[in-house]
Amino acid sequence: MSGYDAVAETIRVEGTRILATLIRTVGDVQLAEDAVQEATLAALGAWPVTGVPPEPRAWLTVTARRKAIDLIRRERARVGKERDSVELLELSQPEDVDLLRLVFTCCHPTLSPASRIALALRTLCGLSPTQIAGVLLTTEAATEKRLTRARQKIAAARIPYRVPAETELPDRIPAVCGVIHTLYTAGHAPVEGRQAYDVDACAEAIRLAELLHELLPEQPMPTAVLALLLLTEARRPARLDDNGEVVTLDCQDRSRWDADAIARGIALLNDSLLRSNQQADPYQLQAAIAAEHARAARYADTDWPEIVRLYDLLVSIAPSPAASLSRAVAVAEAADTTAALKLLDEVPVSPRWHAVRAEFLAREHRYTEAAAELGQALNAQSTDAERHYRERRREHFLSLASTATEATEPRH
Amino acid sequence: MAQYLALTYTADVDWWAPEQADELAEYRKFGVDFADSIKASAVLHPTQTATVVRVEGARGGKVVTTDGPYAETKEALTGYYLIEAENLDEAVAIAAQIPAAWGGAVEVRPVIAAK
């Protein structure tokens, strides 16, 4: 690997940890980011000449710390007085605790939900403002502005960089879980791009979920989030075939599912349910739905009535267009497409809505309408794999429509 | 330590009216309980006593005054506390003890430290 590639690779894989460590030692997000940036530049200058150091991450962390000290000195000289005692603590604490602190700071309740997610995607996952804009369906400029404002607030209002006390946890955990779940969803189903999923964002989300669960093992919500992510991730290898084409749930090769991850996800879900004595939370319900799919050895064995029941609960406690859309699909499988089509009328229209409606219409042999719905779905942004799949379905329905017309047309 | 200005937004009341006595006592209690953290405070006369001052053009221009508050809102600015706290979590915990927090709202703003 060349020096340049080594720098890029180290930053890609270890950048978040280096940044988290720096933020703890210097106590300032902006300063830490600047320092890591300068250390990266230094590495780009040095490694191609000196060779890649034996421990690239340690090299970058130490260099970034030195750069931070330089930046503080420069700042002091500029304002002509000593800054508030910025003490550079020793790097003695485990880095995972740094990461958790960073998670709780990014997910602080005094920041708006949109800012929390943008900040986590930028700081914890290293996504670019362009990528974040894609995930949050906004513009790059708006994302930049949001990030700048959030950082300014953290610095000016002194949002503390710490893990909350035990008594504060129930209030603080849902925001963190929300960010981790959104992060996974963003990696699992990006709006556009060549890859159907971004492996790093998913892996990063699972790592954060593991970490949160490991540090707060008795909290049911982080346990449920980890269960949900593992159960979803377990089926990922079967979502695309060898040519990168989408494979729907009914056609997936279930031997490609990760049985270990499924077993662990189900165990975690049970543990989470045992620990919560109140109504199930949205993550527990979604994990339970994923578990139902994972348990079925064949598609035909799926317990659709149970899945409908779980979706009913989910829609009642955490209504969302995505949950309502999935409930309609479950109803189509459990009962009939007429009921499912009626349910769709209450769900906001989206590309996926059109694609789902197309499948319902096709079941009722309304192929021309089904093809038209897919045409609508194809007008919007999507991943290449998703686009190919929808194009294939549209052609399939069009050919069925012409066959059906020929069959019913009177022959002369 | 950092300083925060906690602005209280509540119904636009006359604090000296007899029916405000009980609530005013609650504010006094807050003042005593958090005396160490409160660096300054004030209660304001109702917004009907307010005057908005503007100078036309530039410094030295004609002084124009208008009767009433700068912004008409359902909840009015009725007082403030200058609070000293280690960080925002501490400041929020203190602000949550101000009676205005449940009778209206408290806006917590970090104060720029004097150089």
Could you explain how this protein is built, in words?
- The complex is a heterodimer of chains A (412) and B (115).
- In chain A, 70% of the residues lie in helices and 0% in strands.
- With 412 residues, chain A is mostly helical.
- In chain A, α5 packs across α7 (140-156).
- In chain A, 38% of the residues are buried.
- Residues 81-93 of chain A have low confidence and may be disordered.
- With 115 residues, chain B is α+β, with helices and mostly antiparallel strands.
- Chain B has one domain (2-110): Dimeric alpha+beta barrel (Alpha-Beta Plaits).
- Chain B has helices at 21-33, 88-95, 100-103; strands spanning 2-10, 38-43, 51-55, 63-67, 76-85, 105-110.
- In chain B, the strands form two sheets. A four-stranded antiparallel β-sheet of chain B has the order 2-5-1-6. In chain B, strands 3-4 form a two-stranded antiparallel sheet.
- The longest helix of chain B is centred in the first third of the chain and has 13 residues, at 21-33.
- The mean pLDDT of chain B is 93.
- Chain A binds chain B through residues 79, 81, 108, 110, 156-160, and chain B through 2, 4, 86-89, 91-92, 108, 110, 112, 115.
- Chain A: Keywords: Sigma factor, Transcription, Transcription regulation.
- Chain A: InterPro entries: DUF6596, RNA_pol_sigma70_r2, RNA_pol_sigma70_r4_t2, RNA_pol_sigma_r2, RNA_pol_sigma_r3/r4-like, WH-like_DNA-bd_sf.
- Chain A: This is RNA polymerase sigma-70 factor (ECF subfamily).
